[in-house]
Amino acid sequence: MIINSEFKEALRQILWQFRAPIRYAFAYGSGVFPQTASGSKSASIVHTQPSPAISSMQGGQGKMIDFIFGVSYTQHWHSLNLQQHRDHYSAIGSLGSSLVSRVQDNYGAGVYFNPYVTINGTLIKYGVVNLDTLCRDLSEWDTLYLAGRLQKPVKILRDDPRVRLANQINLISAVRTALLLLPSDFTEQQLYGTIAGLSYLGDPRMALPAENPNKVANIIKFQLPNFRRLYAPLIENLPNVAFHDPRCKSSDWMDDPYTDATLAQDMDPKRRGNMVRRLPRSFRSKLYFRYQSKFQIPQLEFNKMLEESDDQDPSRVKKQQGGVFDIRVANDRQEDLRVEVKKAIKSTVQWPSVTQSLKSIVTTGLVRSIRYAREKMNKYREGRKRGIGDRSNVNGGEKKST
User: Fold this and answer.
1) Fewer CB within 10 Å, N or C, the chain?
2) Do the beta carbons of residue 127 and residue 111 sit within 8 Å?
3) How crowded is residue 362: how many other Cβ atoms within 10 Å of its Cβ?
4) pLDDT of amino acid 402
């Protein structure tokens, strides 16, 4: 990702203020990657004494910076952090690290957030997640809560080889899912907009006045080169999709924010059946169950099919190939396939997002929860007022008329 080196170092210095061991960390969101034009007014979040690099990068807007910390042992981490930073926690912190870790791991998406914390004069929000939970979501999409965040540009501050590998699976899966939703010919903005919108399908905040309605469009509008750097190398290695634009031959096209290159994908049912087969296991199961109902497949026959497609067999070393059922799913009418894929995404996202939001009321505390809700509502009103961006990408990436 394109990011100022001094800004990156300032973010890393924030991590050093935690004595509890952080194995993996990334910063994300509008506090790191702008989602509005420079000079735009933002919410009234102000850092007390930020580093010059942070002030410069944010253009004086003073936005809270979001972090995710990946840790090996949840209870041990919170035990150390409660000793050092008791003020970061709500009243639940007084009940001890054991309860805090149970609340984190057993409810919602497995993340524990502490918002409105000032470190090194900078206002931050940090979420704590167990590395096993993070890797499982990245590779299987059981909630898409963290996988969805890592499908967009983030700044990795501490890396971990296991997470890096799991996220490659996540990114390729995002491309494959987007291709199932897209027509044969489309543009970069349609592709990246579809990917960025996956984790917002079913997110209750998008149905309430609690999020900027133009959020996805704004992310793509202001971060197109960063999306390209994230996904173009993956697209070049996939056999069924390619850039079809002479502008891509230019040496500097990767950094050009004004190029919206065109792409084409192979709509052959066998190739698309392979994509269905290679979707993340938990998400693929939801899509399979939807088509079991649609195709009225008897339960015994369906169970046998699931056994044959089990990814857990260690003797299987060949790349997964789509079977008869996968090809039948991929060969469904494009509009019907799009509907079923979206419903599978919504069923993946909705419940973890709802329970994570309810959990945050307890973990954040009433006062900070009200403050957070007000700021989200302000973002919603600002987005409605600006009205910028085309939100069609969230709804399936249909090709724009010319």
Assistant:
1) C
2) yes
3) 14
4) 35
Residue 28 host element (H or E) = strand 24-28
Q: Which residues are CB-neighbours of 32 under 8 A, at least 6 positions away?
A: 3, 11, 65, 66, 154, 155
Backbone angles phi, psi at 27, to 5 degrees: -110, 145
CA–CA gap between residue 303 and residue 372 (Å, rounded) = 45
- CA distances (Å), 154 to each of 146, 179, 227, 253, in order? 12, 22, 10, 21
pLDDT of residue 399: 43
Query: If we measure between CA atoms, which residue out of 343, 206, 220 comes closest to residue 287?
Result: 343
Nearest-5° Cα angle at 198, 182 to 215? 105
Backbone torsions φ then ψ of 223, nearest 5 degrees: -130, 25
User: Residue 129's beta-bridge partner residues?
Assistant: 70, 111
SS3 117: strand
Phi and psi at 130, nearest 5°, equal -70, 140
Report the distance separating Cα 143 and Cα 109, nearest Å. 6
Alpha carbons 113 and 100: distance in angstroms, whole number: 11
The reported pLDDT for the residue numbered 307 is: 75
CA distance 155 to 158: 9
- Say how far apart CA 53 and CA 14 lie, in whole Å: 13
Smallest CA-to-CA distance from 336 within 283, 302, 291, 299 is with 291
Q: pLDDT means per 10 residues in the chain (402 residues)? A: 82 97 96 71 67 86 92 98 96 94 94 95 96 98 96 96 97 98 96 95 70 80 94 95 91 90 96 96 95 91 76 55 92 96 95 89 81 71 58 45 36
Taking a C-beta distance cutoff of 8 angstroms, is the pair 397, 190 a contact? yes
Backbone angles phi, psi at 255, to 5 degrees: -100, 5
Length of the chain: 402
The answer to whether 344 and 290 have CB atoms below 8 angstroms apart is yes
Give DSSP secondary structure letters for 242-283: EE--GGGGSTTGGG-TT---EEEE---HHHHHHHHHTS-HHH
Distance of alpha carbon 142 from alpha carbon 125, whole angstroms: 24
In eight-state DSSP terms, residue 400 is P
CA distance 138 to 146: 7
Read out DSSP for 290-308? HHHHHHT--HHHHHHHHHH
